[in-house]
Design a protein that fits this description.
2 copies of one chain form a homodimer.
Chain A: H1 6-24, H2 31-38, H3 42-48, H4 52-75, H5 81-92, H6 102-111, H7 115-141, H8 176-197, H9 204-218
Helix pairs in contact in A: 1-2, 1-4, 2-3, 4-7, 5-7, 6-7, 7-8, 8-9
Chain A binds a DNA duplex through residues 1-6, 9, 30-32, 40-44, 46-48, 50-52.
Chain lengths: 224, 224
Amino acid sequence: MSRKSASARREEILAATIDEIETTGLRALRVADVAARLGLSPSLVIYHFQTKEALVAAAFAHAGENDLALAREIAGADEPATERLTRLLTWYLPSGSTRSWTIWMDAWSSALFDEQIRSTLTVLDEEWHAVFAGVIRDGVQAGEFAVDGGPDAVGDDSDNGDPVDTNPDEAIPGDAVAVAATRILAFLDGLSVRLLVRGGEVERATMIGWVTDFADSLLGRDEA
Amino acid sequence: MSRKSASARREEILAATIDEIETTGLRALRVADVAARLGLSPSLVIYHFQTKEALVAAAFAHAGENDLALAREIAGADEPATERLTRLLTWYLPSGSTRSWTIWMDAWSSALFDEQIRSTLTVLDEEWHAVFAGVIRDGVQAGEFAVDGGPDAVGDDSDNGDPVDTNPDEAIPGDAVAVAATRILAFLDGLSVRLLVRGGEVERATMIGWVTDFADSLLGRDEA
DNA sequence: AATCTTACTGAACCGCGGTTCAGTAAGCGA
DNA sequence: TCGCTTACTGAACCGCGGTTCAGTAAGATT
């Protein structure tokens, strides 16, 4: 019966929702279960979020910000960029521990038919991109990485309306750092899906090696 | 009122189900809609497949086999391996045309909590892997590619129980060809997700360039 | 033509679960 | 102490949609 402030309760409910999606999947998500997890009535959940749909959308955003906060912590550490990058790569891939991952499979499929969620994911992705790009840029300035515009665009040198972009934080091809970050993130996502869907077919440790190689080749560090 | 053989009707229904999932998403899939799409009664759908769940599982398998059939066609063409590989890469990435893609977002998220679907996806993935590995192996034998065991595993040279595997069709690290195929597939999946979820943030053509570069570096072809 | 199999329908069933709403009480300010 | 705001509940509502089932007729088989 303990009354809490609206914001505190909302946060509780969001956390419970994320846990629920994480363990049973979005498909099986019921507001009643979320409420039961906190010993509350289903009506309260609807009271704070007006609809289940809104609850889910908020939960995705909340989960995303949680992960980002940890990522920024790693990215902002007082260490050489090489090490920070490695730690980011390692932490990004799904493991038993920290980062919730299965929720993003649901988020992706939801985003395809829900404009709200799509834009949420877009924002989150841009922030992720900024985190990676920041570390890479640090490494370039420290002389750890050598990023050349190299073999970026292969076949589409024709119709790029704005060849140069002034803002280095956005995922615009043309900025070599940004491109490297995007490619690394894509590879990470692809590997993560495999890890989740195909179980232990390929060892997580092996995958970490693969991304590291990939990053090395993109960032001009000699492999092997 | 036209009666059809059970197998023909089943196939029709599966195709309709795939279309429906593709356009409205698994979340919103209703058996009534599938039936309506063919001008049939919902009961008939349940008559052929006993449950909606089974229908969806069958639809995933069917969609997967469709895509694979086309992939095998490309892979088996009478062309140099380099060209076949490029065409595979290009065709794999989601585009307006052929290959259905959004359905796989739903398939992935479903697989996380459905053993049946998970094993279906596992089988499909193994077949995809075999297709890519086959083309790569052709290229190696023809001298187009130079695959060395190179920088495969970076940090886990310690605990590989079975260092050598005899079957070259499986995704076992240790076989350099198989490893290359797995890495390429992972990158393709990651790029595809971005293309679908983030819309036209990065051009499809640009991504094709990225995968090509990646494949080139894995297959020992000099870039740029 | 008679019969048997089987694809197919219509209508009803029914449980599930999100949402509503009238009412309760906990905290807080005066 | 009174009263006002507001977090919170319980029960009922209700529409949606998967599934059931008894019945129909199309096509094959003889």
